[in-house]
Design goal:
Elements lengths: L18 E2 L6 E2 L22
Antiparallel strand pairs: 1-2
Bound molecules: zinc ion (2 copies).
One zinc ion (ZN) binds next to loops.
């Protein structure tokens, strides 16, 4: 039985406790919970293009 809500949407790591991103509504581990750490689509306005 696999529970996808317990896996990080970025690195697919199994988490004891996940963080939900309020921008993309996905779950991430503690290392990827920040929008800038998982290439969040909701962060496009903040990061300036090259
Ligand atoms: Zn992760
Ligand atoms: Zn996000």
């Amino acid at each position: 039985m696999v529970n996808d809500s317990k896996r990080c949407a970025y690195c697919n790591k199994l988490m004891a406790f996940g963080f939900r991103c309020s921008h993309c509504n996905k779950r991430f581990c503690v290392r990827h919970r920040l929008p800038e750490k998982h290439e969040c689509p909701g962060l496009q306005d903040v990061t300036s293009p090259i």
